[in-house]
Fold these 4 entries.
Entry 1:
Amino acid sequence: MFKRMTESIRLFITDVRGEMKKVSFPSRSETLGSTTVVIVFCILMSLYLSVIDSFLVWLVGKLI
């Protein structure tokens, strides 16, 4: 049983190493570009939702 478990772990580690060789990591400029897009999108969405929320609060205030 111990031998089979050791062989299973060894096979797993070999497979992980093989898969890690296939991975392509983004360059620094790609990472900075993606981060910038995400931050700008978050800011725009927060402004949009703030305007919608303010409008709805004003609308409900007028109805009540």
Entry 2:
Amino acid sequence: MKSDRIAQLKDFLENDPNDSFTRYALALEYAGKGEIQIALSLLLEVLERDPAYVPAYQQLGYQYLKLGRLSEAEQVLRRGIEVAREQNDPHAQREMQDALDELA
């Protein structure tokens, strides 16, 4: 089933390569399959194309944490908190701050 979702999301991206949500969802599917490097690449691409897409900061930070790449996780989460604050998204801001607090 997951392969079907990946294929479907890839089709959606072909039709609209600028759709941040679809690229983000594809990254989550790959992360769920354990294909973390592909997920990281997709999340980084989301942020390159759409630096205001808050969920990508959050998930990228979490993936870096899972990999033990703490410095990168901290940097991404801090930037995500700033963007969430700018967009008045206290929920995402709080979740990323909680993840940062666990690093301390």
Entry 3:
Amino acid sequence: MKTLLRTLLYLALIVWLGAEIFFPVVAAVAFTTNGIDTHAAGTMVGHLLHILHRMALVSGIVALALLALAPAWGIYKPRAVLAPMALVVLMMGCTIFSEWVIMPAMERDRLAASSAIDTGDQSDPLAQHFNKLHERSVNLQIAIQLLGVVAVALLARAESTRA
């Protein structure tokens, strides 16, 4: 049973981090295969980001539940799971902020722009705001990846000190 719970915990983190790491590749392919239609590529990437966020939240809930159960089932010491749990909560917070604050604001800017936001006048306040939000979104995704790697490293360390 302990092996199953550890496997599920690592699987939840692997799914989340794997998707986070693979997402920029998918975005790059969307923009290069759609040629000059960056609006369509951006729309596709936006939809994929919504899917990524939902996958991340499910993975985060599973990871938190398993981390909470781990000490009770003798998998990890209670102190060993505190930092990884805090990191997963931070990752989920970044994901929630991106999904329900940044992405809707980007969509409002995109819809309010009279032309495609990336091909229009870049001195336009809407385009500047959109670009600022996009940069924040990218930085949040990077932060989520880094926090996830640290969480996995801390769990690997707890695993090695447990033995």
Entry 4:
Amino acid sequence: MKPKKALGQHFLTAPSVAAAMVRAAHVAPHDTVVEIGPGKGALTAPLLSRAGKVIAVEKDAALVEELRHTFSEAIKTGRLALVEGDARQVDFSALAGTMPYKVVANIPYHITGALLRHILAAPRPPSTAVLLLQKEVAARIAARGGKESLLSLSVKAYGEPRMVRTVRAGSFFPKPKVDSAILAIGGITRAHFADEKEEALFFALLHAAFAHKRKKALPPLRRRWGARAEAAAAQCGIGEDARAEDIALSAWRCLARTLAEKQGAAE
């Protein structure tokens, strides 16, 4: 099959990379694993060799048919479930039922941000996510002690990301223009937020501040949330000259929590 450019298809062709992803996710016989975009099954096969059950979500109908043929035996035994659809619109926790689950996937570059948010903010998120994505993006997400980005903070708000290894462009067909990397996100939880209101406020604050990340963070927050934002920032140790990219995750969490409390008291 000719890869579809519109779907961002770059099929993984390196067995060693697939094996590294399975190891990074610590896949065990009792695990349920959700795979996003299985493509031609390069990652599906090693997942099936280690996991108790694999749920593969594929948008391309032609690939779904090919996978049904390739993995017919695993489908018959119930060890593989194929779901045709857009992963951004699928409730992974509903697919897994009551079982804990992990996500392991080679995800298209052009929907990385949307998929990450969808995975991490699921009603019941996975315990672990191991993703193959653009190297530069993975490095920015996993960076420690440097400048943050909207994406890095959005991931770290839910879990602990780490770079596993670089993956050369030649490990895919067709060959992308840049290298990729395996990113592992462990300890995923939504428990850092008191409730959905605080979670939504956290991301609203990030988006407002990062709209002009090279400028001071407080002015756009003050314009939207008024004096309460200024008071909350002072309480959380965020200085008047701080830029969004220089504010630590702990301070953003404090800001969302404190501002939510102040708004609740004012209502």
